[in-house]
Amino acid sequence: MEVNDKEEQGKMTVEETVNLKIPKQVLDFAEFYAEIGSMERDALLTKIVIARLEDIKEKFKALPHLHIPELW
């Protein structure tokens, strides 16, 4: 019973799911993502990951207390 109760706690009801406030931009992206092929999806996700890594790299390099040689 205990395990089942814990599993149920993480689930949303249908009404909660329907009433989610999802930004239009996210819905548009989800619709676009569903329409493209797998190779295009892979390319898109790769671009997103690269952009995030570049952003993280810039933030990392800007940390004032780290004095490290250029790693990139």
Q: Order of SSEs, N→C?
A: HHHH
The assigned structural class equals mainly alpha
Q: What kind of sheet is the major sheet?
A: none
Give average pLDDT, whole number: 78
Please tell me what the overall shape is. Answer: flat
Please mark out the parts with pLDDT under 50 across 5 or more consecutive residues, or reply none.
Answer: none
Radius of gyration: 20 Å
Alpha carbon gap, first and last residue: 53 Å
State the helical fraction. Answer: 55-70%
Briefly summarize what is shown.
By secondary structure, this protein is mainly α. The protein has helices at 2-9, 14-18, 24-35, 38-61.
What order do the helices and strands come in, and which of them pair?
Blueprint: H1 2-9, H2 14-18, H3 24-35, H4 38-61
Explain the overall architecture.
The longest helix has 24 residues, at about 40-60. The chain is built from four helices and no strands. The protein has helices at about 1-10, 15-20, 25-35, 40-60. It has a domain at about 20-65. Helices cover about 70% and strands about 0% of the residues. By secondary structure, it is mainly α. The mean pLDDT is about 80. The N and C termini lie far apart (about 55 Å).
List keywords for this structure.
72 residues, mainly alpha, flat
